[in-house]
Amino acid sequence: MTIGLFIPCYINAIYPNVGVASYKLLKSFGLDVDYPIDQTCCGQPMANAGFESEAEKLAMQFEAKFKAYDYIVGPSASCVAFVRDNYGHLIKQHTCSSAAKVYDLCEFIHDIVKPASLKAKFPHKVSLQNSCHGVRLLHLSSASEINIPYYSKLRDLLSLVEGIEIVEPERADECCGFGGMFAIEENAVSVCMGQDKVKRHLATGAEYIVGADSSCLMHLEGVIKREESPIKTIHIAEILASEL
Fold first, then answer.
1. CATH number for the domain running over 125-240
2. Which residues contact 53 (CB under 8 A, 6 or more apart)?
3. Which of 50, 51, 168, 235 could bond to 18 as cystine, CB 3.0-4.6 Å?
4. Phi/psi class of residue 131: alpha, beta or left (left: φ > 0; alpha: ψ in -120 to 50)?
5. Class of CATH domain 2-113
6. How far from the centroid of its chain's Cα atoms is residue 208's Cα?
7. How far apart are CA 77 and CA 60, in angstroms?
8. Order of strands, edge to edge, in the sheet holding 125-129?
9. Distances in Å between the alpha carbon of 179 and those of 42, 132, 138?
10. Helix boundaries (H) for 109-149
11. pLDDT of 215-237, one tens digit each?
């Protein structure tokens, strides 16, 4: 199988180590991984702000860059969910293949690769950060409002890491307050939600907040730095690729 590695624009600009870790992790499974060097934004910010025509142009470009691959894999639940759920109607003039074969990094490793072990070591206590897109659109974990048995694909993967201790905060799948445009349009509410989320993570005694969405982690990191809280954020890819 051939894999096109999709690195969202904000990860490329602000958290490049997440992109590097994602590449190393996928390669460690012996997979054929390629990174289209001139890829750009998937169009989510434009579409969420109401500029669908601009998002359509980026969707067409994304489709052209990734159509040759068997799978498209990216370390961002929100961007992957946008491609999967919206490209079908954004790309009106051509058949869209991207939506059917795009996967979040954790989803792909958990559901497709299905590793029995990992070459990873992280001797720290971590608190799971569930992003809204990851939980409710990609089903990376069970949603608390639905009466189904508990599961977490992030916890399953982290359990393969040597030395790690995994905990979850109270109200584990409640929004952190980022929400893209929401953080700009309702900034005061967004900050309060972020502060509440950080407090719940701190209450677990964890050293790190770990999640699959750098956007949510970025929001929490801002709260942590302003309040000088004794906890850090880290993308799950950086832990899973820690020994590579």
1. 3.40.50.11810
2. none
3. 235
4. beta
5. alpha beta
6. 16
7. 20
8. 165-167, 125-129, 208-211, 232-235
9. 16, 8, 16
10. 132-136
11. 999 999 999 999 999 999 999 99
